[in-house]
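SEQUENCE AND FOLD
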Amino acid sequence: GGWLLLQNCHLGLEFLNELMDTIMTKQSMSEDFRTWITTEAHPEFPINLLQSSIKFTNEPPQGVKAGLKRTYSAVTQDLLGVSKMPQWKPLLYAIAFLHTTVQERRKFGPLGWNIPYEFNQADFSASVQFVQNHLNDVGVKHGVNWSCVRYMLGEVQYGGRVTDDLDKALLNTYARVWFGEHMFSEKFCFYKGYVIPKGNTVEDYLQYIEQLPVIDTPEVFGLHPNADITYQTNLANETFSTMVSIQPKDSSTRGGETREAVVQRLADEMLEKLPPDYNPHEVKAQLQKMGAIQPINIFLRQEIDRMQLVISRVRTTLTDLKLAIDGKL
């Protein structure tokens, strides 16, 4: 009745076929048993396992406000008070802002990153853990070693994923501009209106995050305002391409029928061809004439029952589909 977690299964596709056979051929299995699989999208992933599974995807939220809100919703009061050094809370917020920024830049395509990197929550957690350990090591007297912090964030924690030289330079620029003694001054801001709030509780930070704008200008991420035009254009083109791709392909031969009209016509044709339900009394009478206890007739009765279920299910589904198209379901 436990849970089995298999991670990064795109690296072991051959085992998944064995896993599928084991699950399908198992004689008895606890109702509380679950198998969780984490994987990247892969064209050779077993399609039968994919179809029999419930799919989940975890996408980062859109915008600085939503990103920071999600990050700080997972921050506990114990984490906020884990260090007594005054640099800890501003550094935690700055790392959260950096985490949101590197994710948001992906939506701008090559303008944001030359290569779209999969930054995730593990990068943020590792960065926070490093800063916490660093502050514990240096203490109040020595202060923060900013060269070390910038190198770890720009070259190791987040930079470890980066393979392009220009992307690496961009990430190191963020680390240099946002992390230093200047970040504790009153004039410091990530961008106009985006500052490091002061607070002692998680609620204080969440209240400040709620005041941030829902839609961010590209200049927050260090991009030109025209980058938003490119993003919106690409988004509109993608939306229209999706709409066109789901349109019926035979519209030219059918006089420009809509998708709903095609489905309605096919449903009507199938309902006309569908045979009527079997009359159970007639079936029973005919089988008694033929010898109801003969094995072949018992088998025939079972097949008639199964066919009756199929006919009823198809008729109900097609009828509901027509009502749904007409808006009467």
About this structure: The chain has a mean pLDDT of 88. The longest strand covers residues 3-6. Residues 3-52 form one domain.
